[in-house]
Amino acid sequence: MKTHIWSFFSVKMPPRDSKGSRMLFTQAPDSTSHQTEGTPSTRAKKATTACQACQKRKSKCVGGEPCEPCQKANTECVINADNDGRRRITLKRKIESLEQDRNLFERLVEGIRNDEERQVPEILNMIRSNVSLDEIRLYLTESQSTSHSHNVPMKSPTSSSKRFMDVRRISDIPLYEVPSQPWTSVTTDGSFVSHLVSHYFTWQHSTLNWIDRDLFLADMRVGKLDSRFCSPLLVNIILACACFYSDYPEVFAKPDDPSTRGEHFLEEAMRHLAMEEDRLRLTTLQAWGDIYTIACIMGKDRLGSQYLVRIADCIGQVMNNRQRMISEANEQAPEMARSIDIAIFGLFSQYSVAILNLQKGATVNRPTTLKYFPEIHDPDDIWTPYPRQGEPIAAHTNCLKNGLFDQGLIMWEICDYLFGDENNTRVDPEIINTFHQRFESWAEKLPQCIKLGYASTPGVMEMHMRYHNAILVMFGFVTPITKEGESTTKDRIKSLRTSSARHIGTMLSQFRSLWPMECMPMTAMRYATVALFALFEDLDDVQNQRALTDIVITLRALARRWQFAKGLLRLVQLTTLKQDTSLPDGTVSMLRDLPSSSREAQT
After folding, report:
1. What would you report as the CA-atom Rg of the chain, rounded to the nearest whole angstrom?
2. DSSP for 395-422?
3. pLDDT tens digits for range 556-594
4. Least C-beta-crowded within 10 Å: which of 9, 320, 344, 572?
């Protein structure tokens, strides 16, 4: 018989006989026999749980051990304390069970948030297969222990702090093996530099392409400082940009300070830039493109605007000196010609979308003498989602360059019309409609391989976001001056803008479902913000509400990593407060409680 916890009851133990044994009760005591005259009666205390015998008989148990019914039936009286919901030990076990469930929930969320390549699909399959929570918990525990068994400390050549390798780092095989020396003094770790270079040419280069990758890598591997297609300036600024795509601890200039991501490489790049002494070099023009990009990533828009002016100046110089630069390349003249054209195509395309979003007129002439790249489909022209071990897909690099360049030409003309003439205070809706028709014609004439949905790469997806971003911006200048009587035009413009905004939201969601969030193109964050402002104009539509909430979720997730995204969210936050905009449920709290960086916390 299980011993009961007697302190919880006021029932007296049965007396012992002369041998010290308990005497069984054969007759229930008279409830009034112990009550003296004049003593008020007390209510019998109710049992907190019935004994096992009473539970079987389905009779009322009055408590005590043995209880009154068991005494009458002369049966063994056993009370299971674990079934008592008011007992401390039972409550403790319930709390422990709830804590285990909470821990399981947090681990599931963390696993999905980190987007482990193999773990998440397996977890989802287990959930859909109706396995028990204990089995899921066991799977997570075993996966975690396997990962921890590979966490081996190593000495870092870039820092005195210890570097820990997880299972992803052990299995990390860079796409491009390159040396660290003699290109940078920040690190001597060639594997780390190869990791960053692979990140850059996987994610940033696929959307912002102004470097001939093969020529750059070939010269970097040779290691000659006087190379035509590689320089310490270009290498360090590439490494600085790539730090924003990597989770290695060496990407921080100060250990464990995310706000210093890439700053050590940036500082070295700027030192090399100061030593250029206005020399006209192709690598300097290419570096300016990435200097502008990293300024935007760090949320330094004003500085970025100044860099755009310098980019325009460099583009003009290279275009004017193109033939001389090609002839000076001697035996590498064909390679120099191709590399210059790639730089002009890519930087002009980026310059056009940048000044459109900044609402500035063009300060560089429209290129007219460049030849389009041959739209061949080389089987070696592939894109792989590094560092994931996914299947490579066709990149269609030349088709994408040509498509972006044609798109940039239209944007250049839009900027020239809207912002080129300070005296132009009246925007003609017909001219904007003409630009829209040209964009529609551009989209229809795109090769099938770079139309949205055809095994799209990040570059293809970003190009289509640029298109919808341009629709939002240019029609935004028509809406305020439309007369009240022109309801048809006004409704059409609203429909075009909200449709483009929702398309941007859809593409952001597609990117999020296919690839890591931290690899989102920098330009996509600005497109997302423009889309949000368009959606604010018509939040009565349920589709617009959903699109807005989804875009805010994306920007908020990116704000944990990118200062640029955080600044854009603050702009949206201030605008909604100023305009007293009524936002969908859940969106208000996401805009109110923005994540802050360690640097902001110190100021």
Report:
1. 35
2. --HHHHHHHHHHHHHHHHHHHHHHHS-T
3. 888 877 778 888 888 888 888 777 777 776 677 777 766
4. 320
Average pLDDT value over all residues in the chain: 81
Please say whether the beta carbons of 571 and 529 come within 8 A.
Answer: yes
Helix axis angle, 397-419 to 429-445, nearest 10°? 180
Q: Quote the crossing angle between the two packed helices 397-419 and 333-358, to the nearest 10°.
A: 40
> Please, which residues have CB within 8 angstroms of residue 15's CB and are 6 or more apart in sequence?
23
Above 60 in pLDDT, residue 87?
A: no
Lookup result for tokens 């919901």? 85
Q: How far apart are CA 73 and CA 494, in angstroms?
A: 84
**Residue 457 pLDDT:** 93
Beta bridge partners of 155: 162
CB 525 within 8 Å of CB 518: no
CB 306 within 8 A of CB 354: no
Whole-number Å distance between alpha carbons of 265 and 306? 21
Tokens of 567: 């600044």
Residue 381 CB partners (closer than 8 Å, separation 6+):
394, 395, 396, 397, 398
In 149-212, which ranges are continuous DSSP H helix? Answer: 167-170, 190-199
Tell whether the model's pLDDT for residue 354 goes beyond 60.
yes
Listed residue (115, 103, 183, 170) closest to 140, CA to CA: 103
CA distances from 555 to 430, 500, 564 (A): 34, 18, 10
HEC sequence for 34-84:
CCCCCCCCCCCCCCCCCCHHHHHHCCCCCCCCCCHHHHHHCCCCCCCHHHC
Residue 256 token pair = 């464990």
pLDDT digits (tens, 9 = 90+) for 413-466: 999 999 987 666 778 889 999 999 999 999 999 999 999 877 789 999 999 999
Q: Could you count the other beta carbons within 10 Å of the beta carbon of residue 343?
A: 23
Are 43 and 2 a contacting pair, CB within 8 Å? no
Q: What is the DSSP string of 489-539?
A: HHHHHHHHHHHHHHHHHHHHHHHHHHS-GGG--HHHHHHHHHHHHHHGGGT
463 within 8 A of 405, measured Cβ to Cβ: no
Judge whether residue 215 has pLDDT over 50.
yes
22 φ, ψ (degrees, to nearest 5)? -70, 140
Residue 157 reports pLDDT greater than 60: no
The Cα 267–Cα 236 span in angstroms is 9
If you ran DSSP here, which 8-state letter would residue 152 be given?
A: E
Least confident span in 200-204, 224-228, 576-580: 576-580
How many CB atoms sit inside 10 A of residue 76's CB? 11
How many angstroms separate the CA atoms of 417 and 359, rounded? 11
Residues β-bridged to residue 163 = 154
pLDDT of residue 217: 98
**Given the structure tokens 């500085």, which residue do they identify?**
303
Rounded Cα distance between 166 and 252, Å, is 18
For residues 303 and 289, the answer to whether their CB atoms sit within 8 Å is no
Token pair 């250990």 is found at 255
Backbone angles phi, psi at 441, to 5 degrees: -65, -40
Is residue 454 packed enough to be buried (19+ CB in 10 Å), middle (13-18) or exposed (0-12)?
A: middle
